Amino acid sequence: MPDRWIDAITKPAWIARATDTLGDAVKQAYAGGGDRGLQVKSALNGVWLGHPLHPALTDVPLGAWTVAVALDTASLVTGRNELSSCASAAATIGVAGAMAAAAAGITDWSDTDGRSRRIGFVHGALNLTATGLFAISLLRRRQRQNISGRVCAFTGYALALTAAYLGGDLVYGGQIGVNHAAGHEAPEEFTPVLALGQLADQQPKRVIIGTTPVLLVRRGDRVQAMAETCSHLGGPLSEGTLKDDGIVCPWHGSCFALEDGHVINGPATHPQPCFETRVRGGQIEVRMPRPEEPIALDMHNKDQNEGELVTQ
């Protein structure tokens, strides 16, 4: 399926309008729930899993529906009606799994933009249609209308496969759900990056080490550093806002702990790489962390050997 075909089916103006309306509604629904709404959103994003929840859930309906279609096909070939009953059971599992996947999927989708958002809308619409067709298939089977039930199941399965293709394009083409901070590293040895006097207190600042953008934050006697590119969709954390002990991405609101980079609130699910820092000769120096060495101290403490200020 060429990219131009994908662009063609996502180009109509009504899709753009629909995505804006639905996306805003989803965000408002979570925001209206206050802290509890934020907790539910983060859970559906997969923060607790350390990995997007939606792709893990999609295996359930697609796998179950594959089994259902295979059993229906075998029933048609062999004439064994008991296989059709097993197909119904598999289809039921698929419908239940699809509803869970949809809840996680629409949550992730609400924090996308542009082409990815339009593709995600069509992806979701196809999956919901497939789910509806399998639900109708189950109803037809209970009414002893097995032929129309199978037709609905086969049609729904074809739509689900098309939706899966679009989902793959979102991941491998649009890089939705991947870790955008992966591979962002600091030098192995302490490297000067900025004069301490140039880093204002409570003011996030971006510096470049090699090809890696690094976020520096000074809070009183501490200087902390992490990868500046948000792991969610690559937002610039240096343009974000400090909140308690974390930094909030300006693009989609992901919040990361400055201490160790763990995700406080989604939609991000991958933590931010953090780096060790120290102040020597008035310069902030940064390096990759060394787990085998003790964590560096705050700026009130001095290295007895070097006589220099050390921080994390």
Task: Give structural notes.
This protein has 312 residues and is of the alpha+beta class. It folds into 2 domains: 3-172; 191-311, Rieske Iron-sulfur Protein, CATH 2.102.10.10. Helices cover 48% and strands 16% of the residues. It contains 7 helices and 11 strands. It has helices at 3-10, 13-32, 34-45, 53-78, 81-109, 114-142, 146-172; strands spanning 191-195, 205-209, 212-219, 222-227, 241-243, 246-248, 255-257, 263-265, 274-280, 283-287, 310-311. Strands 1, 2, 3, 4, 9, 10 and 11 form a 7-stranded antiparallel sheet that branches. Strands 5-6-7-8 form a 4-stranded antiparallel sheet. Strand 6 and strand 7 (255-257) form a beta hairpin. Helix 2 (13-32) packs across helix 6. The longest helix has 29 residues, at 81-109. The radius of gyration is 25 Å and the shape is elongated. The two termini are 50 Å apart.
